[in-house]
């Protein structure tokens, strides 16, 4: 008689902690400033994979055109240029830690035009203005 026994490998605990902060300021003359900061701490991974990743992004935008239907925005992501991609895959037979290429610091200039209906509504005498959310 042949007997086979399998015992699962106990994997060490893997923790990832995320801390976030978002701030939006409405400035005079239709300008907006926004900034966000995310701090991720990965620990109890293999040597060289325990990372602390600070990601800071910011944008400045200006609402324009009639009824504020247009918005021109400049956004910069990963201002500190510290983005790192780390992941862990586990199975009953193995633990694999990966470091992958990620997009680091970059800027985006965008223009958004709102197609929502604006102007005087039937039965109303006031004008609806598109506001930034």
Key terms:
133 residues, mainly beta, 5-stranded antiparallel β-sheet, two-stranded antiparallel ribbon, 9 strands, elongated
Write up this protein.
The protein has 133 residues and is mainly β. The protein has one domain (15-114). It is built from no helices and 9 strands. The strands form 3 sheets. Strands 1-2-3-4-7 form a 5-stranded antiparallel sheet, with no helix packed on it. The protein has a two-stranded antiparallel ribbon with strand order 5-6. Mean pLDDT is 76; it is low at 1-11.
The total count of strands amounts to 9
Number of helices: 0
Largest sheet: spatial strand order: 1-2-3-4-7
Helix content bin: under 10%
Strand-pairing-aware structural class = mainly beta
Q: Overall mean pLDDT score?
A: 76
Give the DSSP E fraction (strand runs of 2 or more residues): over 45%
Domains counted in the coordinates: how many?
Answer: 1
Radius of gyration: 24 Å
Assembly state (oligomeric): single chain
Spatial shape: elongated
Distance between the termini: 70 Å
Q: Could you give a short account of the major beta sheet?
A: 5 strands, antiparallel
Unreliable spans are 1-11
Could you give the order of the helices and strands?
EEEEEEEEE
């Amino acid at each position: 008689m042949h007997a086979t026994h399998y015992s699962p490998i106990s994997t060490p605990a893997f923790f990832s902690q995320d801390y976030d902060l978002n701030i939006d300021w409405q400035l005079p003359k239709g300008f907006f400033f926004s900034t966000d900061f995310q701090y991720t701490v990965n620990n109890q991974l293999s040597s060289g994979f325990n990372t602390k990743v600070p990601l800071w992004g910011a944008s400045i935008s200006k609402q324009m055109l009639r009824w504020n239907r247009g918005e021109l925005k400049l956004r910069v992501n990963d201002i500190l240029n510290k983005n790192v991609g780390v992941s862990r895959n586990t199975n009953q037979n193995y633990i694999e830690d990966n470091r992958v290429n990620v997009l680091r610091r970059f800027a985006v200039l965008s223009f958004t035009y709102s197609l929502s209906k604006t102007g005087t509504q039937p039965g109303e005498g006031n004008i609806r203005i598109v506001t930034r959310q």
